[in-house]
Sequence to fold (216 residues):
Amino acid sequence: CNKTTRRFMFSLKLFSLANMALSRIRLREQARPFLHALMNGTGLTVHMAVVDQDEVVLVEKMEHPGLRKQATWLGKRMELHCTGLGKAILGFLLEDEVRVMIQEHGLPRHNENTIASLRRLREELAEIRRLGYALDDEEDEIGARCIGAPIFEPTGRVIAAVSIAGTVEQITPENLSLYAGMVKQAAASISQGLQQIEDAEAGQQELSEPELPPQA
Fold:
């Protein structure tokens, strides 16, 4: 390709990256109050992540005071098939998207609990869609559990996930249903907030558009 084409493609890539960064900033700003409430309500560490290629990337973390700090940080990349965040997103992607991601990345086994077959993963994703949340039950790390739920943009496409993370002593079969409901509610509130922002911006755009003079 010639210099003009290369320059155009480079500019297009920068524009795409800028839009992606803006979307993530907006998502974080909208999500923070709900993430904070989830952290206080559960007493656990809260994460939010987005998909980047065939992994999830942490874009927000809130750690409850007094908890043992987790080995997570903003920008950390995590696998889709064995984390609560990743499975919450995978469960609501198109079948073709899931297939391509798995083909590209595979299903690396972290321990005996990790889902390492496509058939079993598909069964798990069907259950996630039914329940509305995903559970990482010591699949990424022995002794750790995580509950994740999807965040949707106004078009209905899944764009992120929110989760709580703790030990097997903190997230138990007895409190799983309660905590899952709280995570789902936080994710739904964030999704609803994104819809309200889009509705407000659409309304402002309509108000700012000049009225055309009547045709003679």
User: Anything to note?
Assistant: Residues 7-22 have pLDDT under 50 and may be disordered.
